[in-house]
């Protein structure tokens, strides 16, 4: 077990998770059910993001990480990807002031170098505006993949080895963990996936090693405070062992 997980073990008896990650699935199916274009589902999904963030703030969570755009999503039709990029810009421009007002710190995790210069500039501006906020940390995973995250961390350590500042035998689990996204936050306690699918889809492969999972059939645009609360209620009933035995030895 990594040192970061050991560090946070005393708090595992909290009824509420400190760090929730959500795989937001179902925008396309929601739009199809409504007889609308897929981009309509993504726009409705953006409203669900707003509700989720508001709820996380009300629950005084430490962090909320949302899977917005995976590294595999580039394979979608060009028109849909282009519309998603414009929606991303709109969301950054329209929501960042509200996030700042509510003391939310915004971070975008993933390989942002593939985005256009315009989007990269908006990301830098949004992160800079909210950098000193001390409330909820909102992580938006964009062009993110769990495998990319691990490989990028390994590459960073390899550069240190190449420079002679690190010996291969000295590399530890904690050292690699410190190179990954979200390393400054508490570990992910709860992963929620909407849309009825039961898979992780290359999301935070390292960071969710000891997380609890909650799967909902609700399509993401319909995700609201009641569904979120249901996930928290289910989490509060879980017995988290982190690889250890139950108190009764089972």
Radius of gyration: 19 Å
Structural class, from secondary structure content?
A: alpha/beta
Span of the ends, CA to CA: 20 Å
| Mean pLDDT, all residues | 91
Proportion in helices:
40-55%
Low-pLDDT runs = 1-13
Number of strands: 6
Broad shape: globular
State the order of secondary-structure elements, H for helix, E for strand.
Answer: HEHHEHEHEHHEEH
How do the strands line up in the largest sheet? 3-4-2-1-5-6
Number of helices: 8
Major sheet details: 6 strands, parallel
Beta-strand fraction estimate: 5-15%
Structure description:
This is Ditrans,polycis-undecaprenyl-diphosphate synthase ((2E,6E)-farnesyl-diphosphate specific). The protein has helices at residues 3-7, 27-33, 38-58, 78-101, 117-130, 146-163, 173-177, 225-236; strands at 19-23, 63-70, 105-109, 137-144, 190-193, 212-215. It is α/β, with parallel strands linked by helices. Helix 5 (117-130) links the parallel strand 3 (105-109) and strand 4.
Task: Please describe the structure with a list of short key phrases separated by commas or semicolons.
UPP_synth-like_sf; magnesium; 250 residues; disordered N terminus; alpha/beta; UPP_synth-like; peptidoglycan synthesis; globular
Topology, pairings included?
Layout: H1 3-7, E1 19-23, H2 27-33, H3 38-58, E2 63-70, H4 78-101, E3 105-109, H5 117-130, E4 137-144, H6 146-163, H7 173-177, E5 190-193, E6 212-215, H8 225-236
Parallel strand pairs: 1-2, 1-5, 2-4, 3-4, 5-6
Helix pairs in contact: 2-3, 3-4, 4-5
